[in-house]
Amino acid sequence: MNLFVGRNGKKNGTPAQGPPAIIKMRGIGKVYDSGAIQVEALCAIDLVVRPQEFVAIVGPSGSGKSTLLNLVGCLDTPTGGSYRLDGEEVAELDVDELADIRNRKVGFVFQNFNLLPQITAYENIEMPLLFKGTGARERRERVEELLAQVGLSDRGHHKPTELSGGQMQRVAVARALACDPALILADEPTGNLDTTSGQDVMGLFEGLSAQGRTIVLITHDSALARRTKRIVRIQDGRIVEDRPNIEAA
Amino acid sequence: MLRMGLIWKLFRRAAHIQRKRMVMTVAAIAWGTLSIVLLLSFGEGLKANFNKGSKGLGEGIIVVWPGTTAKAFEGFPQGRSLRFIEEDVDLLRESIPEIALASAEMRRWGNNVVWGRTSLSKPVAGVEPEYGELRNQIPQAGGRFLDELDEQEKRRVAFLGNKAKDELFGEREAVGETILVNQMPFTVVGVMKKKVQMGTYSGPDDNNVIIPLSTFRALYGRRTLSDFVVKGENPADNEVLKRRLYEVLGGKLRFDPEDERALSMWDTVESQRVTANISIGIEIFLGVIGALTMVIGGVGVANIMYAVVKHRTREIGVQMALGARRSYVLGPLVVESLSLTALGGVIGIVVGVGIVELLAFVQAKSNSDALQFLGTPTFSLGVAATTVLLLGAIGFLAGFFPSRRAVSIQPAEALRYE
To answer: Is residue A103 part of a domain?
Structure first.
C-alpha cells in the first residue's frame, strides 16, 4: 500500500504540484540478503518531500524507518526503485559521488550524536567543510557562525565528553548545517536526551523549519511527531499513512 | 594540496587518540628493522672478513708440496716420494714465463727464539724476497721485508710475525734489536702488519720468524724445500699454470705429468671462490632471517591497522556520512601505516647503526679472536637500500589492505557498528 499525501493534504498517490521535490522516491525497496535468509525491510516506497517541509517519519521499532532514513540520506543503496535527491538521480552513483551528495545536500543528526570524541566541538563542525574543500578562513567564519546559532560560542574548544547531552546534540545540529544542505535528516534526535534538553533540541528544529529548512525527523515518539507539519507512518516496510499534521498547522 | 592537507589533518587527529597503540606498533617495526640492520650488517662484515681473510694467505697464489707418485713412469715405480730443491724453482722461473712471482720455502719447527729474558719456541721459515708479496706479509712502518742483499749475503736478519713480536718484545720497538734463534744472533728488520688470515698450511703467519732462504740453508744444512709458492701473471689462468707446473716438474723429477698425486697444490683462487660462495650463502641466510623478522613486524603493523580500522569503524561511518570520499578514509590509514613504519624504521636504523658503530669500536680495541673472525659489521648502502625497500613495501601493504576493507563498508553498516 503506497500512499502519498501532498502538502495540501490531498490523498491521491501522486505528488501535488509545487516547488521541485527535495526527496522523490518511486517504488524504493530494500532487501537484506544474508545468504540463506532474505529480509524485505522496505517495499515499494513512494515518498515526495518538498522544500521547507518538516516531516516526521514514525513507526514502531523494526518498521523500517531507519532503513528509509539510510536510503534517503544515501547512507545505503536501495535494491529497487528510483530516487532523486534535490533533482539528482542517486541510485546509479558511485561511492565517491554519493559521498559528495551527502556532503553537499544532506545534514545528519543522530540519536547518539555521532560526534568524534577525540576532537573538539569546533573541529567536529568543521569536518564536513573540510570534506567539501572549503578554505580555512571561510571555514572558521562558518563554524563560529554555527556555534553562535546553536548557542555554544563559548564551547567550541571543548571535546564532546566535556559537553552535556543537549550541548552535544546542538553541536551535531551545527555540524549538520555546516555545508548548508538541502535536507536535514534527524534520527531520534531527542532519544538520548532528558526532557528539558529534548525540548531545547526540538525547539532548535522548529526554529530551523521556521527559517525554511527542509527537515525529515525519524521518531517513535508521537509527541515529537505532533510538533512537525507532516507525519508519515511506516509499518512492516510500507508507508501506511502520510498526512499533514493539522495540530502543527 | 588541500586534499593532502586534509589527509594529513585527519591522520594527526587519529594519531592523537591512538598514541599507545602507535607506540607499540613503532616499537614492533623498530625491533624488526633493528634485527635486519644488525643481521645484514653482520653479514656484510662477515663477507668482507671472509674475503679479506681468504686473501690473508696470499691472493691468487698456488702453494706446491711434493707428493708421492701414483703411476710408474720411465722405469720408476709408483709410490715414489718426490723432493723439491731450490733449483727446481729456478727452473720453473726460466721455463714458465707466465710465473710473476715465486719463492722456495724451508720450514723448521720448535726453534728456540730468545730476546732478553724471554724465551719462546717458534717456527722458522727460510724464504726468498718475493715471499713477502706472495704471502701478503706487509711490514709495519719503520721496518721492511727480507731483500735480495739479505739473500745474497746470507744475512742473519729476521722478519717477525706480529704475534711473535708481541710475545718477545711486548710494546717495545723490535726493529733493530737482536734476537737469538737457536743461539744464533739475528737482527730484526721488520714486523708483519696485523692481518686476517683464514687459511694456513704451517701455522698462522703472525707466529713465524722469517729468515733468508740462503741463511736457513747454511745454518741448518738443508737442501730440500718444504714447499714453494708461485703466482701467475693472471690468477684467472691458474689452471693453465698448474698444468705447466706438472709438465716442467714432471720432466725434471721424472713423473707422469698426468699423475695428479705427484704434486700437492693449494690454489687460493679456487678456495677464495668457495669462500665467496659460503659468505654469500651466509649473507642470504642472515638476510632471510632479518627479512622474516621484519615481516613479522609488518604483520604486527597490519594486525594493528586491522584493529584500528575495526576500532574506528563507527568513526569511519560518521566521516562517510559527512561526505568523506574513499581517499579521505584510505589516505590517513595508509599515511598512518607508512608513518608508523617510517618512524619505526628510522628508530631501528639509528639504533642499529649505533650498535654497529659501537661493535666496530669495541672490535678495533679488542684482541678477541672471536670478534676478529666476525669481522667489522658494516651498514652499507646495500643494507640501507634493502631495509628501506622492505620497510616501504611492508608499510604500504600493512596499510592498504585494512584501509581497503574500511572503504568497502556501507556507511549505514559502519554507523551501526558498536
So the answer is: yes
Closest CA to B218 of B184, B259, B190: B184
Residues in chain B within 8 Å Cβ distance of A99: 320, 323-326
Contact pairs from chain A to chain B, CB under 8 Å: 71
Return the CATH number at A188.
Answer: 3.40.50.300
pLDDT tens for chain B, residues 1 to 418:
445 666 666 666 666 666 777 787 788 778 888 888 888 888 888 888 777 777 788 889 999 999 999 999 988 999 999 999 999 999 999 999 999 999 999 999 999 999 999 999 999 999 999 999 999 999 999 999 999 999 999 999 999 999 999 999 999 999 999 999 999 999 999 999 988 787 788 889 999 999 999 999 999 998 999 999 999 999 889 999 999 999 999 999 999 999 999 999 999 888 888 888 888 888 888 888 878 877 877 787 777 777 777 777 888 889 999 999 888 888 877 887 788 888 888 898 899 999 988 888 887 777 777 777 777 788 877 777 887 888 888 878 887 888 787 778 888 888 887 7
Overall domain count for chain A: 1
Helices (H) and strands (E) in chain A, counts: 7, 10
Domain residues for the domain of A155 are: 51-77+94-244
Residue B123's CB is within 10 A of a number of other CB atoms, namely 19
The partner residue sitting opposite B320, judged by closest CB among A99, A117, A123, is A99
Q: Does A205 touch chain B (CB under 8 A)?
A: no
Q: How far is A143 from chain B (nearest CA, A)?
A: 15
Task: Assess contact for B151 and B212: CB atoms under 8 A.
Answer: yes
Query: Quick one: which of B143, B272, B267, B269 has its CA closest to B210?
Result: B143
Instruction: Pick from B318, B322, B403 the residue to mutate for testing the A interface (most A CBs within 10 Å).
Output: B322
